[in-house]
Design goal:
Blueprint lengths: L1 E6 L6 H11 L3 E4 H10 L3 H11 L6 H17 L4 E4 L5 H7 L8 E8 L2 H13 L10 H20 L4 E5 L4 H18 L7
Parallel strand pairs: 1-3, 1-4, 2-3, 4-5
Helix pairs in contact: 1-8, 2-3, 4-5
């Protein structure tokens, strides 16, 4: 069974890659951002709790994310399905919380799509100018500051465990997808894992 976490700053293309990778490796795609926005839209207890946090441009802490993901991932694991989660972890506290719902014996990697702040800003400005912005794009600056502050610690946390793969997010969608699949496939060969699609 395979579990992938996809992380990176806003507009790095991790959602697009998550969709492609879920098809390539037959994984269930879970978007943390979509889960949170759904809770807010449905005005659930969690939604009411996280709405002001999102509006203020901050990240939601690990325990709330864990609560949202736990039930969903447990059900999929029980069904023998692999998963891909995009947008988690983005804080060091979330990285620590992630250990709670990764079962032993699965192939688990965190894929970081690297993008510098200037390119991130350029892509967000382009998204805004073409009318493709999301409701929370206008407050992403604070989140990106938090992300860039924590990313070195997150990288170290997973690298020490042999779980980190890093990819340059500047090339085309196709090139990034090819790089990602090559990294995953080579890594599985190195670990003597044979994945059945």
């Amino acid at each position: 069974m395979m579990v992938l976490f996809l992380i990176g700053p806003s507009a790095c293309g991790k959602g697009t890659q998550a969709g492609l990778l879920s098809e390539r490796y037959n994984l269930e795609h879970i978007s943390v951002g979509d889960l949170l926005r759904s809770e807010v839209d449905r005005k659930t207890e969690i939604g009411l709790e996280v709405e002001p946090v999102l509006k203020a441009g901050h990240f939601v802490e690990g325990n709330i994310i864990y609560k949202l993901l736990h039930e969903k991932t447990e059900k999929l694991f029980d069904e023998g399905k692999g998963i891909i989660i995009d947008g988690f972890p983005r804080l060091y506290s979330q990285a620590e919380a992630s250990e709670k719902f990764i079962r032993h014996g699965v192939y688990f990697k965190v894929i970081l799509y690297s993008l510098d702040m200037e390119e991130c800003k350029r892509r967000l400005e382009n998204r805004f100018s073409t009318g493709g912005q999301r409701a929370d794009d206008n407050v992403l600056t604070e989140r990106e500051k938090s992300f860039f502050q924590d990313i070195d610690r997150i990288k170290k946390y997973y690298s020490l465990r042999g779980q980190m793969l890093e990819i340059n997010a500047k090339p085309s969608i196709e090139d990034i997808f090819l790089q990602t699949t090559m990294l995953i496939d080579n890594d599985m060969i190195k670990e003597n894992i044979f994945y059945n699609e």
